[in-house]
Amino acid sequence: MDSGTAAPVPSLATRLLRALHVAETALLVLAVLVLVGLSFAQILARALFDGGWAWVDPLCRALVLWTAMLGALVAARDDRHINLDAFSRLLRGTARRVARIATLSFAAAVSGALAWYGWQLVQLDRAAGTLAFGGVMGWQVQLILPFGFGLLAVRLFLRAFVAPPAAP
Predict the structure, then answer these.
(1) Contact in structure between 152 and 76 (CB atoms under 8 Å)
(2) 70, 8, 5: which is closest to 33 by C-alpha?
(3) 3-state DSSP assignment of residue 85
(4) Taking a C-beta distance cutoff of 8 angstroms, is the pair 41, 56 a contact?
(5) The Cα angle at residue 132 between residues 126 and 135, in degrees rounded to 5
(6) What 3-state DSSP class applies to 134?
């Protein structure tokens, strides 16, 4: 039966955020699957054929870096990031809200600083011309650091001013 009320149409911003969330999650899952698959193949190649592929180990190190940053972004998105909240659990009302704003703003500032220093690292490695694996330069692999920490800083700062999700 139709009650006569239509479901609200999600705004363009809501749809874009959902698409971003799906893309982030899909990229993280893909990176983890590739990492596990390559690691497993490398182990088999070493065990069965006394060899392997020289490019797999550096690629796996790069994928660990990327999955860590993508995982941090997804965790912050879902408000499931590492949080030392023993003290804040004792607080109520406005005091708890102020503590949340202060801690998330501090975490955002630290992430912003790490984005800045990550960019400096990318610039140094670009000038050095270090090769990571195959035809991929080291600075290209490290681009996740300034962009990941930059996005993390923005996300944490915005989360500071949004009510936390209800506990399950």
Answers:
(1) yes
(2) 70
(3) coil
(4) yes
(5) 90
(6) coil
Give the residues across from 133 on adjacent strands: 136
Count, residues in the chain: 168
Beta bridge partners of 137: 131
Paired residues of 131 in beta bridges = 137
- pLDDT > 90? residue 91: no
Question: Which amino acid does the sequence have at 61?
Answer: R
Q: What DSSP string runs through 4-49?
A: S-PPPPPPHHHHHHHHHHHHHHHHHHHHHHHHHHHHHHHHHHHHHH
114-167 pLDDT, tens digit per residue, is 999 999 999 999 999 999 988 899 999 999 999 999 999 999 998 888 877 665
CA separation for the pair 74, 110 (Å, rounded) = 18
CB 86 within 8 A of CB 168: no
